[in-house]
Amino acid sequence: MSTATVSDRVFNFSAGPATLPLKVLQEAQENLLCLPGVGASILEISHRSPPFEAIIGSAEADMRKLLNISDDYAVLFLQGGATTQFSMVPLNFLNKEKSADYILQGAWSKKAIGEAKKCGNVNVVWDGSSEKFSRVPTQEEIKPTSGAAYLHMTSNETIEGIEFHYDPNTGNVPLVCDASSDFMHRPLDMKNFSLIYAGAQKNVGPAGSCVVIIRKDLLEQQVAGPHHTMLDYKKMVAGGSMHNTPPVFTIYILSLVMKWLVNDIGGLDKMHELNQKKANLLYDYMDASGGYYKPHAQKGSRSLMNVTWRMRDEDLEKKFIKEAKAARLDGLKGHRDVGGLRASLYNAFPYEGVEALVGFMKEFVKNNG
User: Fold this and answer.
1) 360 lies in a domain?
2) Whose CB among 119, 172, 192, 225 lies 3.0–4.6 Å from 90's, allowing a Cys bridge?
């Protein structure tokens, strides 16, 4: 059986699980059989052993450094992905006597709202459906409800390709953010958030873990129980992410990605510059294409992570996807719910891949009029 090499890799535009840093993959490959000084694979060691405690401790320390997370917040590495958090947030902070505010800006926020309604009253404080979820609200359009348990936002909608480029001010209402698809892509002022959650498989690791950053005083606003153990933030914080066996391998890869962000990229300011450069190259070309490639998102709300667009008809889009894949540009098909095309440019996606895509798009126009 032949062994694949780096040269066999395609440019992977998948929305997730997504591209990981090549350096991280190579280090994981090199040490998969046996972690240095441990005598066993990361897939084999106890989650309560000193080697793994060092790994999860390093992942948290580097994340705190990158995001400037104070001791007022707990950092958790949980299972279940962000979809579990759609339920876990309201199960902890919402009941039939309370209400929570939600911004409806796309497919994922809609799913989060559906789960929250099972627990209590939901106020949709802004609804972008009339504009086909082509933008996020302005600060002036966000009007929190007095006394709401929290206000929930989705910082980036992967399906529609729209993103918040600012942190909303919600006054006295705690701000909860689903940051699954743009987590760690830019600096954040953590003081603006009471809780952030993010599935790992977009920007920080493989599938299998969800990062939760929660302000400790928010825990005191937990609604009366009893709470199911694995869906109880207080128990998860008390257990240090290890009430049960955590997703060890995912956390190991995440720890390597954190080191890559710190040591190779130079922090989130640098990462944000690179992400802007990648996205701007693609958006600028589409804007200059005379409508041949039509971005879905309105300017000002365009995602740096997920660039979505349409062409003149579906047959042409299908041809584009087929020929792009043959040119080693993979994963460009839009989400099944909306169709079209989508290029996901997460942190680890290389600038050279965007250059290759733009070059292909130019040739496609020449050959298809």
Assistant:
1) yes
2) 119
Domain count along the chain: 2
Return the CATH number at 243.
3.40.640.10
Q: Which tokens belong to 319?
A: 């041809």
Catalytic: which of 62, 101, 108, 232?
108
pLDDT tens for each residue of 332-365? 999 998 999 999 999 999 999 999 999 999 999 9
Closest by CA position to 79, among listed 303, 299, 294, 239:
239
What is the SS3 assignment for 298?
Answer: coil
Q: Tell me whether residue 11 is in a domain.
A: no
pLDDT tens-digit map of 57-82: 999 999 999 999 999 999 999 998 89
The CB-based long-range contact list for 123-126 (8 Å cut-off, 24+ gap) reads 123/99, 123/148, 125/101, 125/151
* Amino acid (1-letter code) at residue 44: E
Is there a contact between 194 and 175 (Cβ–Cβ < 8 Å)?
A: yes
**Choice among 62, 110, 182, 202 that is catalytic:** 202
Among this protein's residues, is 202 annotated catalytic? yes
What is the pLDDT, as a whole number, of residue 2?
60
Within-domain flag for 120 = yes
Q: Tell me which of 178, 232, 260, 333 is the catalytic residue.
A: 178
Nearest to 349 by CA among 23, 10, 11, 5: 11
* Residue 326 near residue 182, CB atoms below 8 Å: no
Provide the residue range defining the domain that includes 275: 267-368
**H or E element at residue 24:** helix 22-31
Q: Does 108 participate in catalysis according to the annotation? A: yes
DSSP-assigned beta bridge partners for residue 330: 12
Residue tagged 């040739």 (tokens): 363
Is residue 126 a part of any domain in this protein? yes
Maximum alpha-carbon separation in the chain = 64
